[in-house]
Design goal:
This protein is an alpha+beta fold and about 190 residues long. The chain has two domains: about 1-70, SH3 type barrels; about 100-190, 434 Repressor (Amino-terminal Domain) (Orthogonal Bundle), CATH 1.10.260.40. About 35% of the residues lie in helices and about 15% in strands. The strands form two sheets. It has a five-stranded antiparallel β-sheet, with no helix packed on it. A two-stranded antiparallel ribbon has the order 2-3. A hairpin with a 5-residue loop joins strand 2 and strand 3. Helix 2 (about 115-125) packs across helix 3 and helix 2 (about 115-125) crosses helix 4 (about 145-155). The longest helix is centred in the C-terminal third of the chain and has 23 residues, at about 165-190. The protein is elongated.
Length: about 190
């Protein structure tokens, strides 16, 4: 274990205060999360309590020099459980107009869901949040964390990687394809 302090007040997703700013806790080495959404987080027991909490790495400061990677949760051994891995964003010298918020909005609308309905579905998939969070994400081009990405994908019934494509350009492609098919059938019939 390694001693840590809370960088700021830390709350659970439900709003319960876990630790006050400066409170000391013990980070557990090599903790394995039961929920993949806690990968990349640190398991900490605050104030000598037996029960611990998963907290974001940026929410704690280690008091001594340690190899932090031993305290940041990694996924358990890979099993084939049907869960798709979230691929990294493409890299290269090509132009790529990636906009997570636009993709989220287009996919949500294609599913004919309101922002509130998407919030409810994401809550059912383990990530309760407010409608304002969806509104914020839809207006922000930056990709969210893995937990949000997976919950949104499950709620919208799409693979997570679909958010990494320029969905707006895919819609333009579909319209062009439909037009070309209509033109070719008109030419064949006439």
């Amino acid at each position: 274990m390694a001693r840590v302090t809370a960088a700021d007040e830390i709350y659970t997703r439900g709003g319960m205060l876990i630790a006050r700013a400066g409170e000391v806790g013990e980070a557990v080495r090599d903790a394995v999360p039961a929920d993949a959404g806690n990968c990349g987080r640190v398991f900490v027991r605050w104030g000598g309590r037996r029960h611990g909490y998963w907290v974001d790495r940026d929410d704690v400061r280690f008091l001594k020099a340690v190899n932090v990677s031993h305290y940041v949760a990694r996924p358990a051994a890979k099993e084939d459980n049907g869960d798709e891995e979230v691929p990294p964003l493409p890299s290269g010298s090509f132009s790529y107009d990636y906009d997570f918020g636009l993709n989220l909005r287009l996919i949500r609308r294609a599913r004919r869901l309101s922002q509130g309905a998407l919030c409810r579905r994401m809550g059912e998939n383990g990530l309760p949040l407010a409608q304002s969070t969806i509104s914020y994400r839809e207006s922000n081009p930056q990709a969210p964390g893995r937990e949000f990405l997976r919950a949104a994908a499950r709620a919208l019934e799409v693979p997570p990687f679909i958010f990494l494509f320029p969905v707006a350009q895919l819609e333009e492609y579909q319209r062009a394809k439909k037009f070309l098919l209509m033109m070719s059938s008109a030419m064949a019939g006439g």
